[in-house]
Amino acid sequence: MATKILIFLSFVALSSAGFVWVDDDNNRFPKLRQIPKFEPFTFKPFVFKPFVFEPITFKPIDVNYQPKEGENFVAVSTSSHHESSNVNGVEKSSGGSDIVTNVGGKINEEGVEFKKGDRDDENNNEERNTNENSGENNE
After folding, report:
1. Taking the CA of residue 24 as centre, how many other CA atoms within 13 Å lie in the half-sphere pointing to its CB?
2. Of 118, 39, 46, whose CA–CA distance to 84 is shortest?
3. What is the DSSP string of 30-44?
4. Would you tell me which of 37, 49, 76, 93 could form a disulfide with 117, CB atoms 3.0–4.6 Å apart?
């Protein structure tokens, strides 16, 4: 504690002793040269040619595809839809889903639809299941 007091008193004595920093010009940085002025420069606008891509063409889906000898073929296609409306507080909705599978040439199409928004009412549900394109020979 005595050391701290001694250091504090030393700072007070030095500051009141009239110690003045003499400002000499020996440590000043040299003045910078003026930056030269340039003529205004305008960039030419970049003109890009439009990118040209080959059009993408999709082959039509062949639902009735029959695999060739030694070929293992499995295809699954699903789609679903849902519509709803609320007009003057009357809510209506409908929707459905379809699944088409082709496993080794055996085609199975299944679908379900609901109408009037009541998914639990058996009278409003309509199910579809067709195996007419099964690819099996019934000879």
Report:
1. 3
2. 118
3. PPPPPPPP-----PP
4. 93
